[in-house]
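Because discrete structure vocabularies remain unfamiliar, we reproduce here a specimen of the format, pairing a chain with its fold in token form:
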Amino acid sequence: MTLPVLSTNTIINLPVDGTRPIDQVVIKVVNNGSAGAFCYITGLSNSVSPQAIFVEELFELQYQETLSKTYVMVEDLFQFNFVYSQEQMKIQVFLVDAEGVWTAVDLEVFQVSRITSEIRDNVTVTSTDFAAISFMRRPGFAIPQGLAAEIRPAALDVMSKRPVRYMVVAGGTLDGTFENYPTPTTAIPVTDTALLVNYTCTTVTGGKVIMQGTGSGISGAYANLAVNLLNERLSYEFHDEPVTLVVNSLSGGDDLAVTFKMSEQW
């Protein structure tokens, strides 16, 4: 399920007899979810082309926390957009006139998302666990282009000739190096993803297994194992820790090709 982006769309605030119909905008946010969540607010002036940002705030709300924001309006045409990381976060916008009368605004839902993936081939494995591909959130990803409200494992593919075991491991310490996109196999502009990828890793120490499984192989030919992780509804904190696809062979040595995919909901 894709998390929504909410928008007021364009609101007209042209002066009438020297007085603007909207004196203030009050935004109330409540986190009804089961954990802390982020909300990103932008206020856009639509009186110019391209739009100009006059409000830009990113904040965290803890479980059952409520926050109220008030903005004085001097724009002729404006809109507010909201991106948030918990489905149960609720947002209400009120327009306040010079007399102090509050009017609620209906918010429109629109959605933006992407699947970020990496491929690694010629992965030589034995019965020992092999960390094939790892992702982690990129701390320096710029607002507003890179605010990923939610990031979680989406899918994996493993091509093998022998029976194979796979695990998705959250956290832990890896060798290799986390890098920005694009990579030698994946042409994703660095501004289009909030993820770093490590495709030179071999081991992960510590961490926790959040799901695992097995797949069959075909002697002398490749069999493809495809797993939809979105159906598993994997959930964990993905602020500072990596998530890693780990594979090994259940029947002698093998050479694998693997793909690991992450869902980014903006």
